[in-house]
Specification:
By secondary structure, this protein is mainly alpha-helical. It is 65% helix and 0% strand. Pfam families: S_100.
Length: 105
């Protein structure tokens, strides 16, 4: 019988697999170009600034990636954390708005 994974387990596995598959050399770090390619492909609506060199440089600086250094999974996780926190805030506001409307009826 095949194991059944939860949606959250699948999501975590997908993040790890996507990071590893973005490396052309199976390294534990991504080059800036590999990172840019992965972000552009996998997060095109959430990270719109990484499309050009200036935007990529700012994103890498925001993640505290030193110039010329590879992007680690921990660096990538910092981006995921930021995006998830933003998404949580947006959904919480939507929920609060819906609840306020409900209580006013």
């Amino acid at each position: 019988m095949a194991e059944q994974y939860t949606a959250l387990e699948v999501a975590i596995n997908t993040l790890v697999k996507n990071f590893h598959s973005a490396s052309s050399t199976d390294a534990d770090t991504l080059t800036a170009q590999e990172f840019q390619s992965m972000i552009s492909k996998e997060l095109p609506t959430m990270v719109t600034t990484a499309g050009d060199q200036e935007g990529l440089n700012k994103l890498l600086a925001d993640l505290n990636v030193e110039e010329g250094k590879g992007v680690t999974f921990t660096d990538f996780w910092g981006l995921v954390d930021s995006l998830a926190t933003t998404q949580f805030g947006l959904q919480s506001k939507e929920k609060q708005v819906k609840c306020v409307k409900c209580s006013l009826m």
